[in-house]
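To illustrate the input format used throughout this study, we show a single complete record. The first block contains the structure-token representation of the backbone; no residue identities are included at this stage. The design step must infer an amino acid for every position from geometry alone.
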């Protein structure tokens, strides 16, 4: 009898992060609380991380912190809508409302755009952009993905129905100089893509989601079941899988109730882009959130 294939042949590392393990860090301005889920490299500061994923409770309106050379994506989890005001003024009067008509809000810049962010709709923006949030219906909670421009591309999908996910990597997560980012194993040379690792983050955003490997066993990792047993993720739980380049892993995803949602984030190395290319991709990504099939909202690449 042949041995059952092992998941670590395709995934160099797995990590289960329960919601109860996350620690709340209040903002200095008192406007909210952030819970970091995972950061790469671990413990990196804002000037050195390659990517970072977190959940934030926004308790009052105000400007977003600016992060030069960082691409950002947010998904509204609770509350809302959230009005995202873009432009140097940070708040606007008579700005263009992206869901139709004009929206009046306090501020001095009449040329700013206002995007009404509803639940489960990924929205992407450059970290150095002037963005401010208003909360017409009160406090909100949102899911945040940050990736370093020119080094990492983040793809985000919000899943709402049972389906099969294929995880894989064709390129490595590494810096532009080809230095391995320290995720699992792999190397790269030069700029752009090469051999190495890619990472999948599966975040249970609502309800209960179950994940079962179809073509390999779970690896030995704290909290993971044996063999190919079903893994249940409660709201706020996260499963991280670091993939070996050129391999694939198939997972069956089940939702325990109709309201359950799973956010699927894929992180891989990316080619450096010009500002024009980045802005073009931003328009494409933010206009492609209506979703098809089993996805409530999809994006191609969070590089705005």
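Output of the design step:
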């Amino acid at each position: 009898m042949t041995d059952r294939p092992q998941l670590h042949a395709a995934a160099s590392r797995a990590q289960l992060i329960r919601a109860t393990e996350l620690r709340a860090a209040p903002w200095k301005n008192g406007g909210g609380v952030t819970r970091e889920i995972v950061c790469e490299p671990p413990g990196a500061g804002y000037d050195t991380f390659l990517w970072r994923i977190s959940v934030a409770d926004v308790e009052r309106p105000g400007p977003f912190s600016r992060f030069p050379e960082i691409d950002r994506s947010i998904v509204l989890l609770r509350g809302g809508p959230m009005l995202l005001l873009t432009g140097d003024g940070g708040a606007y009067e008579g700005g263009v409302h992206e869901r139709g008509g004009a929206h009046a809000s306090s501020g001095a810049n009449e040329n700013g755009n206002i995007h009404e962010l509803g639940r489960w709709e990924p929205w992407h923006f450059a970290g150095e952009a002037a963005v401010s949030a208003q909360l017409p219906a009160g406090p909100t909670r949102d899911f945040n993905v940050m990736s370093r421009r020119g080094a990492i591309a983040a793809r985000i999908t919000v899943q709402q129905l049972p389906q099969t996910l294929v995880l894989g990597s064709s390129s490595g997560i590494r810096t532009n100089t080809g230095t391995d980012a320290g995720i699992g194993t792999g190397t790269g040379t030069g700029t752009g893509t090469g051999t190495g690792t890619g990472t999948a983050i599966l975040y249970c955003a609502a309800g209960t989601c179950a994940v079962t490997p179809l073509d390999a066993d779970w690896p030995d990792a704290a909290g993971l079941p044996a063999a190919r047993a079903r893994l249940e993720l409660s709201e706020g739980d996260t499963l991280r899988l670091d993939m070996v380049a050129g391999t694939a892993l198939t997972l069956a995803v089940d939702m325990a109730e109709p309201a359950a949602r799973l956010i699927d984030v894929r992180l891989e190395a990316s080619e450096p882009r010009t500002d024009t290319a980045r802005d073009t991709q931003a328009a494409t990504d933010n206009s492609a959130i209506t979703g098809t099939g089993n996805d409530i909202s999809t994006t191609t690449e969070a590089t705005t």
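Structural context for interpreting the output: Residues 275-286 form the longest helix (12 residues). Residues 7-16+150-298 form a domain with the Jelly Rolls fold (CATH 2.60.120.10).
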